[in-house]
Description:
This protein is of the alpha/beta class and 424 residues long. The chain has two domains: 51-79 and 320-415, Aspartate Aminotransferase, domain 1 (Alpha-Beta Complex); 85-318, Aspartate Aminotransferase, domain 2, CATH 3.40.640.10. The protein contains 14 helices and 14 strands. A hairpin with a 7-residue loop joins strand 2 and strand 3. The longest helix is centred in the C-terminal third of the chain and has 20 residues, at 321-340. The chain is globular, with a radius of gyration of 22 Å.
Amino acid sequence: MISRESISFSTATFKEFENIEGHDMMATAKYFKEYIDYQKENNLLNFRFKTNGCGPETTVSSPFLSQPTTCISLVSNDYLNFTRHPKVIEAAIAGIRQYGTGAGASPLIGGLHEYHVELENKLSRFFNRPEGSSIIFTTGYTANSATLLSLLKAEDCAIVDMEVHASVYEGLLGTHTKKFPHNSMVHLERALREAKDQYRTKLVIVDGVYSQNGDLAKLDEIVNLVKSYGAYLMVDDAHGIGVVGETGRGAAEVYNVLEKVDILSGTLSKALGHIGGFVVASPEIVNFLRYQSRQHVFSSTATPASFGLLKALDLIDEEPHWRKQLHDNVQYFKQGLLTLGVEIGNTESPIIPIKIGDPVRTAEISRMLLQRSIYANCIIYPGVARKDARIRTSLMATHTTAQLDAVLNALEDIGKKVSLKKGR
């Protein structure tokens, strides 16, 4: 809880407004609106810009632009640009024509349709698991939060990398949680040792590809530690599925441990180009979730446009050149950034951070890029640590070399005016 008197609009972040002392929900909302109005009036709000869809270019409407402007887009997680793939679009339209626009009910009481079963079965086969090993959710966020709320109780313990997604933390509200510093095997083992005889279920939770740094979990080492201490492993690979690994099966494929992951969660909204989430686990765990996960049982499920997902999963194997082109773009852009002397961390994915450190300078660079018709995300606290602000870029297979060069040239020009080096 924080006092209203301690909040300064010039330095505050969204985090400070979560729980204000003495403010009920309406008073909190009204005060937060004052803060957002202040941000808008002072050209400080870097969020909720309107675009016209996913692609290597998009039209952006922003207070920092005099009119809607076509910009090179570095903000989309549509890594393979399957949202625009003609075969995916045709499949989605065909599904709507056959089944209509909605599911009509929750899967437990009439909303389980043929295409839902087909999608779950295809996901099981995609990850070389037996039938009954997959369950779909309305979002990737829900796939994590709903699964964890169902499986972990007060007698259990989750051991999580500190940089896992917010959806994971929401799913841990009813259980014990131990956090370990990002990718630190020493601290993971310490947490496993402490939890070994203290809790009923011990579940280690990591990302496959981390959403802010773009680096991979050390899954080979993690698997060995988890198994040696009698724990289970959950990998959220929302940003890895379809993108990394020889056949696009994600970070676990990179380390050849796919069959050793107890619970694999992911999203259908990134490389697969639609919306929704999924969990792949043992048929027993999946069966439990089908009847015990409240967000699954009491929510209507995926629409018939999910036929596009069935085609997208096929295309991962049928058209691997998209993944190859994405990889080439990543290598080209990373080399260009390193030539400029910027810090990009240990990224091994299409997520490439330009680490600035200072939040004010980061926001300034973001605006300068936008004014040069380049849309990239300004990520500051609480999205990352206060000292770790960055420009977050996401590449797509359909970016051209000319577009990437335009971004690098703009950064080089901006770097002559505002330092791109990390620091305050």
